[in-house]
Structure formats: structure tokens, C-alpha cells
Amino acid sequence: MKKELRKAIIAGNWKMNKTRPEAQQLINELKPIANGIGCEVVICVPFTSLAAAVEAVKDTGIKVGAQNVHFEANGAYTGEISAVMLKEIGAEYVIIGHSERRQYFGETDETVNKRTKAALAGGLIPIVCVGELLWEREANITEEVVSRQIKLAFAGIGAADAAKTVIAYEPVWAIGTGVTATNEQAQEACKLIRGRLEALYGKSVADSVTIQYGGSMNAQNAAELLAKEDVDGGLIGGASLKAADFGVIIKAATVG
Ligand code: 13P
After folding, report:
1. Residue 175 CB–ligand 1 contact under 6 Å
2. Distance (Å, rounded) from C-alpha 164 to C-alpha 120?
3. What is the pTM (predicted TM-score) of this model?
4. d(CA 34, CA 1)
5. How much distance in Å is there from the Cα of 235 to the middle of ligand 1?
């Protein structure tokens, strides 16, 4: 992390977990842990818990995010939720293009781009997810894959908007598997992403964008990953569902 240049952000991606009472309980456990902490703490909860989460984090520094957003503001899109709706309910962040959405729900680089634009237009901070599959890493095309994902995600987005985004590098083979990228692999990919941003928008934007690592980040490995220069935070799945583990990670981001 380089805190003098950019914000350290630890975000929990709760995925499809926690009913409203369960969400309230986890937030109650998190509150004392996050009190006075020296990094941005975000919890990305299921749509059904957004209102309860926004209410529960009042008067704390914890921010609330969603896990997806539709690209239209309203209309005949059964089952979808727009940026306007998320903003109105009090969400500040939204995860876009998570690999589970790409894998199971037909998300493409094009829809990631449209959702990112919609989130920015709606005043939300997009957490744009990129990352290679296992076979892509084994075929030595990680750089090509991640570069393409970044280029397409940011197509048509200006520098001022790009500077407002957060990017999460999540190698798909590391998500939910217990296999973490090595510190060096995480650093290398985050640096590559920063280089792509620099090519698109110049050094000052590239230097200012928070780039997270995600994929089996946990209480044991967080400090080492966050010690890397271009790893500015984490997008945490499983370990964000346990207050004690998430607490260790946000403390590691405070110290780093
Ligand atoms: P895990 O931390 O469970 O591997 O999940 C990572 C992730 O997908 C965060 O978005």
C-alpha cells in the first residue's frame, strides 16, 4: 500500500449470505472493531439487507455497497436494481463484474463497461473486478487477459470518472479455493493494472486509484499481501463473514 497516494480500502463481499437479522448481528460485531480504524471499511451485502445495513452502520465509518447494478435507470428489466435505487437506499459502493457474475450470469466485458458507467453516473463508487482463469494463467496470458478486461471496462470513461473507481484484481482460481495468489503474483498483477491505467489516463490518475487484491485473503495472509506497494486493499469473501477475521484484515490495512 502507498497510503500517501491512495486510500486503503477493505471491502467485504458477503455474496449470497446473511438474512437481515444475521446481517444486523454481524454489523454489531464489526462496529467496535472498525471504530477509529485507519482504512476505509466497506460491506457489500445482498440487496435485501441494504436498508438494514445502512441503518446499522449509521454513526460508524463503515460504508455499505451492493454486489451488482443494472445499467438502465429504470424500465422493463424484471428482477434488476438500478444505480438510482441503490443511491437512494444509501449504498455508496457497488461491485461490478465479479467473476461469479461473469461465470454464472452471462456478464461480459461489455456489460461490465455499461454497469460501470451507470454506477458512476448514479454517484456510486464502482469496484470493478478483473482477473484471469486458471488455464489463462497456466497458458501465460494473464497479462493479456487482465489488460483486455481493463481496457474494455473503461472504454468511453473519462479520466475524472476513472479516478473515482476502485479496481479489484481477483484471480478466479484463488476465489473461494483457499489458494491465494503469492504476494508477488498479487503485486505483479496490481502493478500491471496500474500501468494500464497510466497508459489510458496518465500517471496521476493511475497513482490515485485504489487497487485491491481478492481471492482467499484471510486473517493469516492479509498483512503480507497488503505490504506490497500496489496492493491497496482487499475484496474479501469468506473471511468477511466472520467479524474476528475481518477485523484482523482491517487492522492489517491500518498498520500497513
Ligand atoms: P474469497 O475471499 O472467499 O476467496 O472470495 C473472494 C471474492 O470473491 C471477493 O469478491
Report:
1. yes
2. 8
3. 0.97
4. 19
5. 7
